[in-house]
Specification:
Elements: E1 2-5, H1 11-24, E2 28-34, E3 44-47, E4 50-53, H2 61-84, E5 89-95, H3 98-106, E6 112-115, H4 129-137, E7 142-145, H5 163-170
Helix pairs in contact: 3-4
């Protein structure tokens, strides 16, 4: 399972997910996380190097339509790339509280792959708060991808003695 920001998916996480899926002959489930509260309330927002004018309300119709269009395009790209690589894929769109939903889904997953900056409030926030919480509360192993995807040379397990970390290692 790969956890992605539906609006700005992390390409290195996706490439690493493809690598692991092909290496193990398994499928890849893309969890596209959506509808986070907007942090930016300015009248002009920047999306993919384009200026978007809105009323600053995160629930405004133009902003919702724009987010929907971007999310659907990113999901389409993910599906197409999986098919081209011969990887079985599933897509799940999580709309709501991303951490709560990821923790719930972690009990059914073999592994979660994500980037360190998933929903970071700034580029300097690494790992992001959501990723830190995911590491602590997940019920399966979590792989944080590097900025450059490379083949796995060694695996390190980190354990803080909590129930969730022991359960993840047992997996």
């Amino acid at each position: 399972m790969i956890a992605l920001d539906a609006e700005k998916p992390d390409n290195q996480s996706i490439l690493f997910g493809y690598y692991l899926a092909r290496l193990t002959g398994s499928g890849l489930t893309g969890i596209f996380l959506e509808d986070l509260p907007a942090e930016d309330t300015q009248n002009e927002k920047i999306f993919y190097n384009s200026v978007f004018s809105g009323d600053g309300n995160p629930g405004s119709a133009p902003e919702i339509a724009f987010k929907e269009k971007i999310s659907l395009e990113n999901i389409r790209v993910f599906k197409t790339a999986c098919e081209q690589r011969g990887i079985a894929w599933l897509v799940h769109r999580d709309q709501g509280a991303p951490l709560k939903e990821l923790i719930t889904e972690s009990s059914y997953a073999d592994l979660i792959i994500t980037g360190a900056g998933l929903f970071a409030s700034s580029p300097l926030e690494t790992p992001a708060g959501l990723v830190e919480d995911l590491l602590v509360k997940s019920e399966c192993p979590v792989i944080i991808t590097a900025h450059r995807a490379e083949p796995v040379a060694k695996i390190l397990f980190a354990c803080d003695g909590s129930v969730s970390s022991l359960f993840a290692i047992k997996q």
